[in-house]
Amino acid sequence: MDERDEYLWLEDVEGEAALDWVRARNAESEAQLADTVEFARLEAELLAIYDSDRQLPMIGKHGKWYYNFWRDADHPRGIWRRTTLDEYRLAEPTWQTVLDLDALNEAEGENWVWHGAEFLRPEAPRVLVALSRGGADADVTREFDVEACAFVEDGFVRPESKGSLTWRDQDSVFLVADLGPGTVNRAGYARTARIWRRGTPMSEATVVFEGPEDNAGYGIFAGRDRTPGFIRDLLVHYLDSRDAVLYIGDAADRLVRVDVPDSAVKHVHREWLVVELRDEWSVGDQTHPAGSLLVTDLDDFLAGGRDLAVLFTPTETSALAEVTFTRNHMLLNVLTDVVSSLTVATHVDGDWQTRPLDGVPELGTLHAGAVDDETSDEIWLVVTDYLTPTSLLLSDLSGDDPPELIKAEPAAFDATGLSARQRFATSDDGTRVPYFLIGPADLEPDGSHPTLLYGYGGFEISLTPAYAAAVGKGWLERGGVYAVANIRGGGEYGPRWHQAALRENRHRAYEDFEAVARDLIDTGITSPTHLAIRGGSNGGLLTGNMLVRTPELFGAVVIQVPLLDMRRYTHLLAGASWMGEYGDPDVESDWKFIRTFSPYHLIDAARGYPPTLLLTSTRDDRVHPGHARKMMAALAEAGKEVSYFENIEGGHGGAADNRQRAHMDAIWLGFLWRHLG
Question: Which one of the listed residues 537, 577, 598, 643 is annotated catalytic?
Fold first, then answer.
């Protein structure tokens, strides 16, 4: 294919001609994939799981209340509700509804999707609620009163855009929004931060920070740390998808840039500045490797001191996954060969001491969240793996008692006879690439097993073990084998693993994925006609490249909410913010290597391709649906077997409610069994 784009018209997201084309493709796929008894059964089974009142309700604390957002059959768009901790511990807690989105949508004639809420701390009843039309990234923010359970008349309202509204105090907010020409950056994110005072027009909000118009980052975050004794404003200016600058101080007076590398992740907690390095940093008389975790006294650092304590240094097999703060401790989550372990760090008598957090599972994935990092040392622990339903534990880091099991999800599928194990493949350059294999424990290596291989490989995101109802019910329970590849580009081994597949080295991620596929074939787990692959977003770019690079390895390909046209990606929605990951196609030297992983430009009508399914959403305002639309059109024109489904709502996640989610999941699962079963 040359670079003249005959399908450019499909980028008109809501244009009538483009939507007519979408509706026709959807009708074809519905008739082909959804008009069967088996599809209806699977869709109903998945919906019953997603709507079950036995799902694990995650909660967040404010005052005496614990809040949860919940969707089920009676509340498809969801309710925001609350209960007490004593009630939450019960098998069937009593909940109080605070906001009913279905009722709100009916009253306002809207299609709001929940995007979260920020309370005015410490215990004020006012909250800023973010709502999205159809699940898009762009949203609105409206002030809400949780005592009256109603939106505040004449309260703060942020117009729809990719931005935020956050509390500064009870009568002022930080406004980051698209307010007209010149107020968004190249990637479509708001580029100004303003202080907006109650009772004044939004137009009079005071600009306290302005980023350049040609910036291609995620815009700006501005907020106030309201921790007693440490009240200060924090502003983050995102330079691209990775790098950011942190400013601290009084936004109404003076903000000071914190002098740490732009690429580092910065945390401010009470008196501490905590830095996660993505690149090597020489500071003082020491050089710290990428992946290290450093901590120092913030005031001393701002005054010029450079005495930084080292809390974690990576190894060849270990990397820092996350840091969680409580009132008096830090909890370090470390991945060793993609398996989590937890370490508690505490400042005692002028020095940092560490100890393992005992009583947690040794295999699988752990995620930690503070119950209230201003007043408490309690943490929530979410524990999950491929075959064990997710559970929620409560632990107090100030004590020695083991974590307490609070709730666990019911099993969504029958895991009898299944096992999860870790294996390693060898990539083209000799790199050892881990992957997880989930399937029957007594699997015969005869190459006959329908196998689904999943991957992502970008933006330093790690694929750790997680319980997935759709895969379990729709794939494993029916006899399929599931594999998850921890390829370069991800964060499984820290920054080095991510940076190994950036820009001109993107091919390393694809070689890693192909190495895992070949290992599955060479060891008799499966064969090309029985091997399918699936990925979404950057993972959709991955599976799109597999389709055009090594189609002979696969029997079916699923590509979800993908990037595919890498010539135009920087001109489509948020695409410009990812140039640090992929490069700039408008720079000739960059386009030379980007073209080698632009699937839309690599379609070869003369090659045989496996059956392919493309899935996207009209309301995806992060990765433009034009990528999937144009790829579908080009593959069909080349005579390839390709199916397409575009959900009209859903945003980048693909679905706006449980029914849509069940439908989309049943489509790709039905497609796989149609071609591999």
Answer: 537
